[in-house]
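Re: the 201-residue chain
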Amino acid sequence: MAALATLAGGACDPVRLTDLGQLLKVIGTFLGLSLFSVGGGNTLLTEYHHLSVEEFCWLTPNQFNDLYALAEAAPGPSSMLVGLLGMAAAWREGPLWALLSAVAAEAAILLPSTLLVVVVCLSWNRFSHSPWRVAFERAMGPITLGILLAVGVRILRLSDTNAVGLLISLSVCALVLRTRLSPLWLMAVAALLGGLGLIHR
């Protein structure tokens, strides 16, 4: 509870979700983003950051980073971040309103894209021999990888504010790419170093 209460300390004057109109605006925003989540929820991370930190001012950059880390560490899809953002957006209005906002934001980001995938899957096999399907599938791979690379660079810029942090991030990238070491071990080591106060933002 105390950790969520700290979400109230934004860097600028936050948009308050004190009425249904503002809540509907949040829902509409995530509904619009849902159909652009090509390659998974993480591809929208830059836009999530822009909305919650810069446009609506619900969170500080550090708070956003913390929620992102929490969403990634927890089991489940990366889109769990949206529920946490929805909760942060309305936390100032009380826990019940925050819970409503979290559920509404999560449903808004998941429903349109899920329905689209179901519709596409039902008819996708009909085009198994179509050159358009082959061309589409081959094109989407590089596009998705490019988006994920841009997101990775964005996370690096948001999280690493000093040379030590940058060195640790680059070392982790090298280990993940060059070894079969589980990322969970790397996360555990980073958590231990942070808990001991050896690294910090």
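Residues 1-11 have pLDDT under 50 and may be disordered.
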